[in-house]
Amino acid sequence: xxxxxxxxxxxxxxxxxxxxxRSHYKTPPFDPLKSSASFIGSTRSLRFHKLNQANPHRxxxxxxxxxxxxxxxxxxxxxxxxxxxxxxxxxxxxVLGRAFEDMCAQMYYxxxxxxxxxxxxxxxxxxTGFIKLLRQDDYAVSTYRDHVHALSKGVxxxxxxxxxFGKTTGCCRGQGGSMHMFSKERNLLGxxxxxxxGIPVATGAAxxxxxxxxxxxxxxxxxxxxxxxxxxxxxxxxxxxxLNMAALWKLPIVFVVENNLWAIGMSHLRATSDPExxxxxxxxxxxxxxxxxxxxxxxxxxxxxxxGRARRGEGPTLVECETYRFRGHSLADPDELRDPAEKAHxxxxxxxxxxxxxxxxxxxxxxxxLKAIEKKIDELVEDSVEFADESPLPPRSQLxxxxxxxxxxxxxxxxxRYRCEDPKFTEGTAQV
Length: 432
Ligand SMILES: Cc1ncc(C[n+]2csc(CCOP(=O)(O)OP(=O)(O)O)c2C)c(N)n1
Ligand SMILES: [Mg+2]
Known about the structure:
The chain is an alpha/beta fold. 35% of the residues lie in helices and 8% in strands. It has helices at 7-13, 84-109, 124-131, 147-152, 157-165, 198-214, 237-248, 268-271, 280-284, 296-311, 340-347, 351-361, 367-390; strands spanning 48-49, 61-62, 139-141, 225-230, 253-259, 262-263, 266-267, 288-292, 317-322. Helix 5 packs across helix 13. The protein binds thiamine diphosphate and magnesium ion (MG). Tetramer of 2 alpha and 2 beta subunits. Keywords: Coiled coil, Oxidoreductase, Pyruvate, Thiamine pyrophosphate.
């Protein structure tokens, strides 16, 4: 059966640069024919155009955009974007992300977790599309919407759920909670509650791999860093500072903007002078790529190119993924602001349903095989809840561990009790 995703039709139906999913954008669609931009084509080569011919010292500007979908196997005529194994891996990861988050919502409303909990439903194609291409020693940096990035990066569901429950078996021993997933083993560097905080950390991680490789001559230090963050965060200064440093030092990093159109209740279109975030890449001298973030296969093609560039030492890439969150900003958000028509528009483009359709249409796997994956994931998520529920809470003595300074008047007194348990504990703190 002819697929909507065959290489020729793919770009025709979903031109990567015409912002098709954002009918809400007021700016006219990008027209490559009218633009002076050159493109990353399937040749994988970047083209440059001279900004200033008269000044030989002036650097060329990188302008980038891509029709990223290539025929994979022209010779055999199969024309597939993924193998069966890849398809099933992507499907399993996305189903895991969705089922895990749905379970989180249930557990949150049952009072099993505390504080703000931000779910990732709807955005799975971005996490899966990028992270499943990474090695274990590559770095991923997330935001407060971090559970699914952690799962994709290989942090066990038990460790993520226990962290949400605040238990000792959590990936941060229950001290981080929902917004602070971290794993040394998996090189997941957080989990950040402040928006934009992860971007400099990611830039530093990318700098460290380059430094280890080029200065310390560690040949294996070719790790790539992928930083995920939202559209609202792109109006934050750290984003611009880090784009500058990453381009200046040609760091092995991919900046992935998950543009879900909203920053809590602030529309991206109201908050951003130019809503096409990908354009900011070329402004700093790196490719800026725009991709349909509801389509894991397209995200994966862009990710391959961007991760490959970083690994080859060709520098950073900015990727804007058009996506949408299916739930409110956090579980405390009644989600009454967004237009039901907008929500319906994106719900109809559910990335998991789309991948399932592709897999079935291309006869990569049967319904039964996919159902078996769904069942396996349901059991895994159930198991993570049981595990978290039965795990112990951290001891009180853990409370001030990893607190670098112990201001006078706080901490543990000579009697082994927390000073705050002493009614006079505030005495002396005025001198701190
Ligand atoms: C430095 C800082 N300022 C403000 C906030 C409050 N805040 C929390 S989430 C958020 C919106 C972020 O939106 P976006 O970057 O689009 O990410 P999304 O929630 O859509 O994934 C804001 C402003 C914060 N956490 N940190
Ligand atoms: Mg957003």
